[in-house]
Amino acid sequence: MTGHDHTHLRPWRAITRRPSRKIRVGNVEVGGDAPITVQSMTNTLTADANATIGQIRQLEEAGADIVRVSCPDVESTAALSTIVRASKVPIVADIHFHYKRGIEAAKAGAACLRINPGNIGRPDRVREVIQAARDHGCSMRIGVNAGSLEPHLLEKYGEPCPEAMVESALDHARILQDHDFHEFKISVKASDIFMTVAAYQLLSEQIDCPLHVGVTEAGGLRSGTIKSSIGMGNLLWAGIGDTIRVSLAADPVEEIKVGFDMLKSLGLRHRGINIIACPSCARQGFNVIKTVETLEARLAHIATPMSLSIIGCVVNGPGEALMTDIGFTGGGKGAGMVYVAGKPDHKMDNEQMVEHIVQLVEAKAAELDAARLLEAAE
Ligand code: SF4
Fold first, then answer.
1. What is the C-alpha separation between 67 and 149, in angstroms, rounded?
2. Closest Cα to residue 181, out of 147, 134, 242, 243?
3. Domain ranges of the chain
4. 117, 156, 293, 322: most buried, per Cβ within 10 A?
5. Whose CA is nearest to atom 5 of ligand 1?
6. Considering the domain 17-265, what is its CATH architecture?
7. 198, 164 contact by CB (below 8 A)
8. Binding residue per annotation — 278?
9. Residue nearest to atom 2 of ligand 1 (CA)
10. CA–CA gap between residue 344 and residue 351 (Å, rounded)
């Protein structure tokens, strides 16, 4: 936290989250006053436990709160217990249709099943899956997708639309509620951002369970990030969303990074270094773009929330530094000014600046972490 962004002083920054009930995904809370969590999904073969654990490790390091793995076959659910044991974060098992995979996944220690109860079929099978979830402390996610709506809803509405998606979600939810099972969250995703946003808005008014927000099949790294940011950003800004997944045709680690950046931009979650940088121009006193690139890489390991401003010249440097924990503003004659807690502190040569900033940030992070530990111990 920068100590500078108190929303009570800046009401135009306040986001009021939609009240939702809280559920658990393993040891992670979702909904209510719990922080908005960031998820991703592995794209390894789940049956290859080692490869999957390796990818989960990378996602954990990037800050993932929850990871989903797909369980299309019995080989996958067989590998699941090894995967769950090796993971620090709770694992969601993605199940489609095959109720047996759901039961196996619950037994294997999945923290949550992504399954649509209406797709399971026979009522005794539905009951069995719900019972397995209950017995093993598993929550569920109902995941409605505009591309796979039930035929009777497509017939009723003519084409996929927000109303059809919400009706589908509520139908699935009713099955769980009828079994007195309330540990579930819902997603209503479409690849079209207008449909996604409208569906979540509609759903948010009709049920109080936590919502898992995402734009499905958003696209590649850049286009998918932009699409997701507009759609999910719109919802999050309106206070809708308790856990998020950015779906990118890219390395899943990127999904986590984008998810956190989205939440950071909205002040909903703080993790790692938030770098504020100017685009640079002829006035720059040092190479801003290269410096920011280097600093991003050098500071990627810091999880402590902190802000850093890297600004080319005094036009915007002092103003931005005022609102960040540490700042550097280009000056002239190969040196610039280092700001600490918003105040000019000392001059530093451009040549040594990257090394110096890294040291300052690492020291400040250690200091903040120690303070937090002390606070927690009291
Ligand atoms: S802060 Fe200075 S260097 Fe950066 S873009 Fe603005 S005028 Fe250019």
1. 25
2. 134
3. 17-265, 273-377
4. 117
5. 280
6. Alpha-Beta Barrel (3.20)
7. no
8. yes
9. 313
10. 19
CA distance 128 to 171: 18
Residue 209 labeled ligand binder? no
Pick the CATH number of 273-377 from 3.30.413.10, 4.10.800.10, 3.30.1330.80, 3.40.1190.20: 3.30.413.10
Antiparallel, parallel or unpaired: β 37-41 and 66-70 = parallel
Q: In angstroms, what is the span from residue 237 Cα to ligand 1's centroid?
A: 29
- Decide: 234 in ligand 1 pocket, CB within 6 A: no
Specify the ligand 1 atom closest to the Cα of 312. 3
Kindly give the number of the ligand 1 atom that is closest to the alpha carbon of 279. Answer: 5
277 lines ligand 1 (CB under 6 A): no
The secondary structure of residue 35, as a DSSP letter, is: P
Which amino acid appears at position 195 of this protein? M
Q: How far apart are the CA of 254 and the centre of ligand 1, in A?
A: 29
Q: How far apart are the first and last CA of the chain?
A: 20
Q: How far away, in angstroms, is 345 Cα from ligand 1 center?
A: 21
Q: Which residue has 């598993």 as its token pair?
A: 138
Residue 308 CB–ligand 1 contact under 6 Å: no
Determine if residue 355 is labeled as part of a ligand binding site: no
The pLDDT tens digits along the chain (378 residues) read 344 445 667 788 889 999 999 999 999 999 999 999 999 999 999 999 999 999 999 999 999 999 999 999 999 999 999 999 999 999 999 998 799 999 999 999 999 999 999 888 889 999 999 999 999 999 999 999 999 999 999 999 999 999 999 999 999 999 999 999 999 999 999 999 999 999 999 999 999 999 999 999 889 999 999 999 999 999 999 999 999 999 999 999 999 999 999 999 999 998 899 999 999 999 999 999 999 999 999 998 899 999 999 999 998 888 888 889 999 999 878 999 999 999 999 999 999 999 999 999 999 999 999 998 888 887
103 CA → ligand 1 middle, Å: 58
